[in-house]
Design a protein that fits this description.
By secondary structure, the protein is an alpha/beta fold. Helix content is about 35%, strand content about 20%.
């Protein structure tokens, strides 16, 4: 399988070199599609250097449109058989790609989520973020009859055909609930795999807010009843 890594980026100059290096260390990766979502902190200049590396493709948004918009741009540009979404910070470890891909390679499923909460050994986010994730996952399970442990995970891995006909309208962090809602409404099997996690705080650049949580709940409710 050809694996494409889609990486949305916005003002990540302190971590972008390191995360790209870590992804390149995974021999499964065929391409890294980086979508710079209007960075203004020097990230874009670093990406100009990284674009010289053979597996790296950089796409630029002229202005900030939101994480969802960047992910959708990356998905549409990716050429791989399987796509994994990778945040540009250092919270998630690309070495987990091996076990994330295993259920797809085995023919068990076409969609895998990396769960931060399926293993007691995984470091948990700050209390309020943990509670928010728990609540959003509970709402997801109640509305869609699912049994997920981590709906909001960045690590969503899927075969290309899963999204070929999918219309994703999210522009911001509501990408996660919209994507999940549309996967579950298609009755696609989602296999969760425990992953490692190194949470960062707002002082370190975390961007999600309380309003994003409210919007996520609304998104889950909306897509339960509309396409």
């Amino acid at each position: 399988m050809k694996l494409s890594v889609v990486m949305p980026v916005y003002n990540e100059k302190s971590t972008i070199r390191e995360i790209v290096s870590r992804v390149l260390d995974v021999d499964l990766v065929e391409e890294i599609v980086i979508v710079d979502d209007g960075s203004a902190d020097g990230t874009r200049e670093i990406l100009e250097e990284l674009a010289a590396l053979p597996p790296v493709r950089v796409i630029e948004h002229d202005q900030n449109q939101g994480k969802g918009a960047a992910v959708v741009t990356g998905i549409r540009a990716a050429q791989g058989d399987v796509i994994v979404i990778q945040d540009a910070d250092l919270e998630y470890d690309p070495q987990d790609y091996y076990k994330l891909l295993a259920p797809i390679e085995a023919g068990e499923t076409n969609v895998v989520y990396g769960s931060r909460f399926a293993s007691s050994a995984t470091e948990k986010p700050q209390l309020m973020n943990w509670l928010a994730n728990l609540g959003l996952t509970l709402v997801t399970n109640l509305l869609y009859g699912a049994r997920l442990t981590d709906m909001e995970t960045c690590y969503k891995v899927f075969r290309r055909e899963v999204v070929d006909e999918m219309v994703i309208r999210a522009r911001g962090f509501e990408f996660e609930p919209e994507f999940t809602a549309k996967i579950l409404k298609q009755k696609l099997k989602v296999v969760e795999v425990p992953i490692s996690f190194n949470p960062r705080g707002y002082a370190e650049g975390k961007k999600i807010t309380t309003w994003d949580g409210v919007l996520a709940v609304w998104t889950l409710i909306k897509y339960r009843f509309v396409d």
